[in-house]
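job 3f2a | input accepted
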Amino acid sequence: MKTRPPHFLKFILILFLTSGCTPKATPDPNLKIQQAVAATIAAIPTSTRTTPPTPFPSPTPFSLAGLFCEYQFCIGHPIDVSFFDVSAQQNPASPSTYSQGLLAAFNGNLFIQVIWQIAPGAADPKFLLDTLLDDQLDTPANQPDIFLLRNMNVLYDNITSTATPALPFGGGGAWTCGDRVFAWKVYSPQDSTSRALFDEALARFTCGQ
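job 3f2a | predicted structure (209 res):
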């Protein structure tokens, strides 16, 4: 069983304090995402050294290492981080669902977010990437790569971020699958790793349609 980062309890406390200040009205999804980013970034340990990846032997061609599967979809991620349900951490009575959700994964050298929502008939996923990117922190290159992958409309763009000095680079992507749209964002210390992480996530992505 993987151990959670040393600041994980502090992170959960920050999330609960943040959610406790939220008005009873229907929360603004942009505000919810921004609060989750701020709380998660605050919990990232700054002195953590990069952990070399550990080989994961598998008796079959299909490995669950680096794969998150829930809410009727699967998505790849680096094996030294794990996704957790931010919505459930903020409010255990209102976790992510098939219709919408918010995940995060982080360590001292990486921060990843994934969001999704129902959007029947949507052909252009850019609107959800715009929702995930923070106007105050994230600056897209505005040179999106748009392509079709396994019948999914996909776009990707590099970003720079001021969320934390330790992770100034990143990238964001979005895609359609069935009646849902997904968006993904990463902060990383090098500008050369973000696209590879996105491609690896999508390479293992499947969704219930």
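job 3f2a | The chain is about 25% helix and 30% strand.
job 3f2a | closed
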